[in-house]
Every structure is written in C-alpha cells, then in structure tokens.
Amino acid sequence: MSEQSAEKPEQKGDSVNPRAVCNVCKRLYRDPKILPCLHSFCSDCIAQLEPFSKSPPLRRLDAAEDRSGEDRSAVTVTVLCPDCDSEVELPPSGPAGLSTDHLALDEVFLETLVTDGPLGCDLCGEGDAGSRCEVCCVNLCEFCRQAHRRQKRTLSHSVQPLEDLKARGRLCRPVLCSLHPGQELRLFCQPCDLPVCLECAATLHRDHRCCPTQDVIDRHGDRIRELVAGRLRPRLERLEESLQKVEASQESLQMRVEAMASEVRTFARGYASAVEQHCLSLLRRLEELRVQRRNQLHLQRAQLQQALLDVRGGVDFAERLLSCGSDTEILSAKGVTLRRLTSLSESGYDPHPATVAPDDGGGICFVPNEPAGEVEGYPVVGVINSRTVDVSRCTIEGEGLHRGVQGQRGNFTLVCRDPAGEQMVRGGENVQVSIVHKEKKKCTVETTVVDNSDGSYSVSFTPEEPGVYSVWVCVKAQHVKGSPFVLTVKRKLRRHSGTFHCCSFCSSGGAKEARCGCTGTMPGGFKGCGHGHKGHPGKPHWSCCGSTVQQSECLPQSVLASVSPRSHLRTVEL
Q1: 314 contacts 92 by C-beta, under 8 angstroms
Q2: What range(s) does the RING-type domain occupy (predicted)?
Q3: CATH number of the domain encompassing residue 479
C-alpha cells in the first residue's frame, strides 16, 4: 500500500472506516496481527511497543510446539496492549508469530476500493476491473469476465459487478498460504489444528488428517458460539447493569451533596460572622466526604468499566468473526479467540449486580440541632454526621459461629461498627451470610438474617449434615474481619433405649472363663475391659451383645456371673 493511501485516514478523519485503521499509527492496517487480548494492530506497531517484562526461555518442548517449528528457546517478551492495557505475551518469533487479522485486511481492501477508485484486473493486469468472481476472489475486466464465463471450469462461478459488492459493504479476499504464495488455505489439518493449502497437505502434512474447511467449521465455530452465548453474553449484561448502578449512585451522591450544601447554607444565614465561618467549615467537611466517596466510586467504576471493556471486546470480536468471517478466517483466528474467550469466562472481575452496593451518600446526614462547639466565642450548632460502617471493625458475637449440632438451630449476632469502633445506631446494611460444607461443596445451609435496626443483625441457621463448614459473613460485599470462619457441626447424640451388661471379667475378679448371668459371652474377652486390671491394655468395655459401652461402671466383685442378669444392667448414651 502506498504512503499516500496510508495517510488518507489522517486527512479524511471520521469518514474512514475505523475498523480499517490501526489505533497506534492512525493509518490503514499494514499486516494486522491479533494480540491475545483480541485487539489488532500493525505488525510494525506491535514490534515498536516497549517491552513490559521478559521471561527466560523454556527448557522443554511439547509436541504442538515441535510441529509448529517455533524457536521456544528464545526469550518471551510481554507488552501492554495499547487499547486495554492488558499484559500480553508475544511469541518467541515476535509479531510474525501472531495470527493475522484477515477481517481487518478485508476492511482495508474495501476502504481502498472506496477511496482509490477503479482497480486493475487481477488476471490480465491491463483493463479496469468492473466485476469480481466471488468464488475465485479475483477482480475482472470486461474481457476477462467474458472469458471467465466461457471456460467450462468457471462457468458456474458467481460473478458480480463491483459496484453492487461495494454497496453491500464487504468484499471477501482469499486467505493465501504463507509458505506457498498463490495457494489458498482450503484445508484444515486436525493434528496440527491449523488451516493449510493443498501443497502443504501433500508435503508437510501428508501423514496428517486434513479435511476441507467447510467440513469442520461448524464444530469449531460452535465452541466460540457456546462461550459467547452461554457464558460471556450473560456476564456482559451483568457488567452493564452493575456499571449503570454505579453511575446512578454517582449522580445520587452528587445530588445529595448539593441538597445538603443548600440546607447548610440556609441554616447558616441566620447567624453572624461566627455562624458564617461555621457554615464554611461544614461545607469543607462535606466536600471532603464527597471527594472521599467519589474516589471510592471512581475506583469501583473503573474496575467495572475495564472488565466490561475486556468482555465486550472479546464478545464483539468473536461475534464479528462468526458473522463476517469466512470459514478459513474463523479457523485462522480460532486459536487466539478461544484462548481469550476462555480466559475471560474463567477469570476476571465478575460481580453479580445484586452484590454491588456502592456508597450513594446515604450515610451522610446533617444534624442541625447538635451542638458544634464555639466559633470565635459564639456557640454554634449543626454538624455533618458521616458515620459509616467500617467492615474491618465489625464483630461477631455468639458461639453458634464456631460450634453447632446436626439438626439443631444455631445463631450468632453480627454487630456493625463505625471506624471508631462504636456500634452503629441504625440498620439497613447489605449483609450476606453463606455457609458451605468444606468437603461437600453442594451442601449448603440456608441462613436467615434479621435486621435489628440498631446496627446489629441476628443470623440463624440449621445444619443438616455434620462436618466442617466455611461461613462467609459479608457487609457491602466485603468480608468482615475473620471471615470466612470455620464452623464445626457435630453429629447429633441419640439416647440408647436398650441396656448394656457390665464387664463379667471385672465382676468376677479377673476370671477369664467368667460368663454373664444372661449366659452371654464377652466378644473380645478380657481385652475389652478398660478398668486397668493387670494385663489389660485399657480399651473400652464390650457388652455381652458386642456393642461398645461408652459410659459404664463395673459392678462389685460380689456380683458374680451367677446372679440374675437384670441385677447388673446399665443404661448408657451413645
């Protein structure tokens, strides 16, 4: 592309299609490459980016890297994307190893058609092209168009006027092989997971299974569609909703501060200079609170905007790739696209709108009747009350947070406190409690949170399974100090309704052959005794029926095996 055509975007400004312009050099794309974050730039522009970090070379090669022929012994360079500031790694071979953005090349090709006037014929190179074969993807003059129609091999091809194709806004170009110029990538090598041309399939990939691109595009395209429709599109909607909520809170905060300032000024006008000075001090305090909360909202808004930008960029690119790209174009960008979409779907900032509870200034109020000390010897009234919950100061009261019994109701109390450690005097905070079994992740406990309207919240729950649980206690979507807590739920003790015999061995004075009066035998013999007789290891008792006795007393030696069984029965709890 000539330097004159490359400078056209700078001259024409907004009239140029932005999808055909590199955001770094502000010119039409020259060899556009796709970064792992799915943003495209000229290969030369990527090469000029300042390295963010460098990692040592890899020691081992896997099979996929061996097939690709890349030099993995080179140093891996990480750069910052000029669009989203994401840290992205460049291949060891540099920008040349990145996937080519064929969609951007199509946009550049269309922009060139619109701005540069007629094109030359791709076959004879002499006449001006007035038509285009959509099958061969070549521009034809009138003579070559007629010849194209007369040849038996190209008789059935769709040949359209260039003006009609320009009006549609898209012209397809063939994706050619970088190893064999002139050969179009029409096949897909499944072992190597990349598009190849016929000559590549016959030489470099002759032992591999190569299929036409139209035979595998549905399977690979569906993976992209599934990530977009099933996971990233819902996240995009949640991020948009959360961002709207934060922006509405910013407006509400500003309106509340302005209203409060008006109230302060009205109150202060009834006083002399001392009252006026007091008014100014109130406004300064109010401004400090506004700036403080505005900064907090700005940080939360920036996090949501960045997450939204990342997900929207991935979704837009994937949807445009699926809707506008040819089979080969989709397969060419499939690898980097799936990696980015998978990374976005499995990690990143993804708050649920219900958990976003930004500070809209509700904790700020003006108390006009409260004494505020003296100004120049004059008593003044009116203070700005900005007591807000300090999550790090909140405390938990009650033993139910750490110990519980299966099937029994447990409870504890959350006390919200301000930065000074004083208990809040009002309720209304967003309190969330989650109890999940540590080993059985699907085993959760339903909790009930009651707002006592005095800064405390009563939490009750009933665990149905014994074991160790993780208890999350959050205020304004933030963990209180110590959260998550560990809750140990013990198995419920049941009262044994039967009876257990005393140890015959002990009752008989240590006769191993002793039998209980009920004619029962002692499973385990004298080794079952826990009374510390000579030769005994100190193990628990066994009853005549073989059940372990957890609590029991030995009968005196005077009670021998000949006595009635009913005279030495013991009822115990298991």
Answers
A1: no
A2: 22-85
A3: 2.60.40.10
Q: Do 339 and 430 fall into the same domain?
A: no
To 5 degrees, how large is the angle CA 141–CA 185–CA 32? 80
Q: Please indicate, yes or no, whether residues 317 and 406 belong to a single structural domain of this protein.
A: no
Parent domain of 280:
262-346
Helices (H), 184-326: 198-202, 213-227, 233-268, 273-324
Kindly state the DSSP code that residue 176 receives in the 8-state scheme: B
Q: Is residue 401 located within the same domain as residue 482?
A: yes
Least confident of 74-83, 144-153, 370-379, 559-568: 559-568
Q: Which two tokens stand for residue 477?
A: 């979507």
Tokens of 408: 């029994």
Same domain assignment for residues 405 and 341: no
Residues 342 and 429 in one domain: no
Burial of 315 (0-12, 13-18, 19+ CB in 10 A): buried
Query: Per the domain annotation, does 250 fall within a domain?
Result: no
DSSP 136: T
Q: Is residue 450 part of a domain?
A: yes
């300032």: which residue's tokens?
Answer: 261
β-bridge partners, 51:
79
Query: What Cα–Cα distance (Å) separates residue 268 from each residue in 126, 272, 286, 368, 378?
Result: 86, 8, 14, 10, 13
Domain end point (choices 490, 511, 544): 490
- 309 & 398 share domain: no
Q: Are 408 and 491 in contact (CB under 8 A)?
A: no
At residue 61 the predicted structure's pLDDT band, cuts being 50, 70 and 90, is very low
Whether residues 458 and 409 share a domain: the answer is yes
Q: How far apart are CA 568 and CA 517, in angstroms?
A: 9
Mean pLDDT of 509-533: 50
In a domain, 180, yes or no: no
Q: What is residue 10's predicted lDDT score, i.e. its pLDDT?
A: 46
3-state DSSP assignment of residue 417: strand
Position 362 pLDDT exceeds 60: yes
Whether the predicted pLDDT of 151 surpasses 50: yes
Question: Has residue 555 got a pLDDT over 70?
Answer: no
Longest dimension (CA), the chain: 127
Inter-CA distances, 163 with 23, 171, 475, 544, Å: 29, 11, 62, 102
Question: What is d(CA 382, CA 63) in angstroms, rounded to the nearest whole number?
Answer: 75
Tokens encoding 121:
């014929």
Asked if residue 148 belongs to a domain, the reply is no
Residues 369, 382: Cα–Cα separation, whole Å: 6
Compute the distance between CA of residue 417 and CA of residue 423 in angstroms, rounded to an integer: 4
Number of domains in the chain: 2
- Shared-domain flag, residues 485 and 398: yes
Query: How many angstroms separate the Cα of 354 from the Cα of each of 239, 449, 470?
Result: 11, 16, 22
* Number of neighbours of residue 75 by Cβ within 10 angstroms: 11
